[in-house]
Design goal:
It contains 19 helices and 18 strands. The protein starts with a helix and ends in a 7-residue tail after the last helix. Strands 11-7-6-8-9-10-1-16 form an eight-stranded mixed sheet, with helices on both faces. Strands 12-18-17-15-13-14 form a six-stranded mixed sheet. A two-stranded antiparallel ribbon has the order 2-3. The chain is α+β, with helices and mostly antiparallel strands. The structure holds coenzyme A. Coenzyme A (COA) binds next to helix 11, helix 14, strand 13, strand 14 and helix 16. This is Carnitine O-acetyltransferase.
Length: 603
């Protein structure tokens, strides 16, 4: 009841005014396309916006949709961004989180930590089940809490053209078990006692030991690797896999489970400076078919990964939720694992967790082999670098009265410009959770002001005075903050433009020229795809680039340092994650120096 009341009181996502979006679209194009292209696009915009024209008709359609639905965008977004997206979820969609290294070094420690973690998730789940989860606020406004109710007991199911999501969080079919994977073997572990109380750490530890001891063989078929495939191939393989009754039951048990715990084999040891980058890769893809990629079911919304060597984190399937609710859950778990364990009463023996069996036919075997090949190519292709920027954290920009997020985004602009000599379309996620069922819109970090700043920054001081550069930096960060505010209030341009395009498809009218224009393609080709995912825990989220020649950049600004995870593809000769990290570090330092320098000092 409480949740429903809260949800109903939230405002609906507005449809921004048409003329406003079109003006802002033209503005956003200025720093990323030539004047000639811009003039051409302006003509298309003028045609689109004319009174009684196609723009107005589509806008009216959107406004009607907004009246009829809880959120005019959320269903469309779920389908377009996730369920109809055909690339593998691995690397291309599912984010990972790197947690600080745990100080255990053996199996006992691994299982004890896993048990405590499971207990921590179940503790959080109690708040979800009782509807006692505290409402979150942004800028004093309550946020939509719906995503919290979608992340447990859910799973993505592949389909030939479109995937779907199942959820077993409520009702008679409510899940009572989790899945545990070890050496590519899946187990169904009931995590509630018959009286409905969750299993304690001690009980869970014993159950995990049983699982471990019955899955010591290391030659099992990595069935989970099928979930790493292109969605159409996986959908075919899925139908094939489920023809067998045992396989079907096993897959259903995984899909229905509350979440998955992956007990990973240790990865090869690496030096301290690349350790975190290696863990980020392990979280994103599992390291390939020889390592832990078969120790996953990537369609599962939440998979916690705990390796024997103390590396741990998670990977999550993106369709049901954005990063912030996932990280809030993680913060809760991390705090929970630090609590001292209570002394428990004697334990009643528990049944052996059920092993989920798979019958591998020759056809399934071929599907697994194909999936392995494709996955190993993806693993080779992903270049990921975790950088801990130690020199300062969000306190420094705050002390300069600058939004830390805007400061970091301008540093990314400067780094990119220094590397490539031009600006690119840049995506930053902005939360739309002030609205009912709100997901995200895009903050376009590249602006006329950001371009002016990055162009001036490296000009010799004689030609552009330091005070001028400083003003340009301040102006660029203000422009960024203004765009961010506009986005979180539902007035950004990207989802509105997408809505107009999808409305045209739904109305069966031809797609307006505006969306067939090269400038539109350039605007949607996000060479920098970025996101801030703040956490109390000293962790970092990571994700892959969204275009073949781009970067994925995720960051967690802490008070005195910033955690960055940067990704690129090795197959693109022009991109390099470590190089981007180097330029980013330099940009952050140079920007601090600029703000701190006196008018006479030299940069
Ligand atoms: N002077 C001093 N302090 C300032 C400031 C200024 N000019 N501007 C901002 N600050 C402070 C803020 O008050 C805030 O303080 P806090 O640390 O006490 O909370 C802090 O600096 C951070 O603010 P800012 O850097 O501006 O960012 P934000 O926290 O408002 O976040 C977005 C901005 C866009 C990232 C956020 O609104 C958002 O939408 N996040 C969701 C992103 C998302 O969904 N990502 C996941 C995708 S999977």
């Amino acid at each position: 009841g409480r949740v429903l009341l809260h949800q109903e009181a939230l405002p609906s996502l507005p449809v921004p005014p048409l003329q406003q979006t079109l003006d802002r679209y033209l503005q956003a194009l200025q720093p990323i396309i030539s004047e000639e292209e811009w003039n051409h696009t302006q003509e298309l915009v003028n045609e689109f916006r004319r009174p009684g024209g196609v723009g107005e008709r589509l806008q009216k359609g959107l406004e009607r949709r907004a009246k009829k639905t809880e959120n005019w965008l959320s269903d469309w977004w779920l389908k377009t961004a996730y369920l109809e997206y055909r690339l593998p979820v691995v690397v291309h969609s599912s984010p990972g989180v790197v947690l600080p290294k745990q100080d255990f070094l053996d199996r006992q420690g691994q299982l004890r930590f896993a048990a405590k973690l499971i207990e921590g998730v179940l503790d959080f789940k109690t708040m979800i089940d009782n509807e006692t989860l505290p409402v979150e606020y942004m800028g004093g406004k309550p946020l939509c809490m719906n995503q919290y109710y979608q992340i447990l007991s859910s799973c993505r199911i592949p389909g030939p053209k479109r995937d779907s999501i199942v959820n077993y969080a409520k009702g008679k079919k409510q899940s009572r078990h989790i899945t545990v994977v070890h050496n590519f073997q899946f187990f169904e572990l009931d995590v509630y006692n018959s009286d409905g109380s969750p299993l304690t750490t001690d009980q869970l530890f014993i159950q995990l030991e049983k699982i471990w001891n019955t899955s010591l063989q290391t030659n099992k078929e990595p069935i989970g690797i099928l979930t790493t495939n292109h969605r159409n191939s996986w959908a075919k393989a899925y139908n094939n896999l489920l023809k067998d009754k045992t396989n079907k039951e096993s897959v259903r048990a995984i899909e229905k489970s509350i979440f998955t715990v992956c007990l990973d084999a240790p990865m090869p040891r690496v030096s301290e400076d690349i350790y975190k980058s290696r863990v980020a890769a392990q979280m994103l893809h599992g390291g390939g078919s020889r390592w832990n990629s078969g120790n996953r079911w990537f369609d599962k919304t939440l998979q916690f990964i705990i390796a024997e060597d103390g590396s741990c984190g998670l990977v999550y399937e993106h369709a049901p939720s954005e990063g912030p609710p996932i990280v809030t859950l993680l913060d809760h778990i991390v705090e929970y694992t630090k609590k001292p364990e209570l002394i428990r009463s004697p334990m009643i023996p528990l049944p052996m967790p059920k092993k989920l069996r798979f019958n591998i036919t020759p056809e399934i075997k071929t599907d697994i082999e194909k999936a392995k090949q494709n996955l190993n190519i993806m693993v080779q292709d992903l270049d990921v670098k975790v950088m801990v920027f130690h020199q300062f954290g969000k306190n420094f920009p705050k002390s300069e009265k600058i939004s830390p997020d805007a400061f970091i985004q301008q540093a990314l602009q400067l780094a990119y410009y220094r590397m490539y000599g031009h600006a690119c379309a840049t995506y930053e996620s902005a939360s739309l959770r002030m609205f009912r069922l709100g997901r995200t819109d895009t903050i376009r970090s590249t602006s006329v002001d950001s371009l002016k700043f990055v162009q001036a920054m490296d000009k010799p001081d004689k030609s552009v005075r330091i005070s001028k550069k400083r003003n340009l930096l301040r102006r660029a960060t203000q422009a960024h903050r203004e765009y961010a505010d506009m986005a979180i209030r539902g007035n950004a341009i990207d989802r509105h433009l997408l809505g107009l395009k999808l409305q045209a498809i739904e109305d069966l009218v031809s797609i307006p020229e505006l969306f067939m224009d090269t400038a539109y393609a350039v605007a949607m080709h996000f060479n920098l795809s970025t996101s801030q995912v703040p956490a109390k825990t000293d962790c970092v989220m990571c994700f892959g680039p969204v275009v073949p020649d781009g970067y994925g950049v995720c960051y967690n600004p802490m008070a005195e340092h910033i955690n960055f995870a940067i990704s690129a593809f090795n197959s693109c000769a022009e991109t390099n994650a470590a190089r981007m990290a180097h330029y980013l570090e330099k940009a952050l330092l140079d920007m601090r120096m600029l703000l701190q320098s006196t008018p006479k000092s030299k940069l």
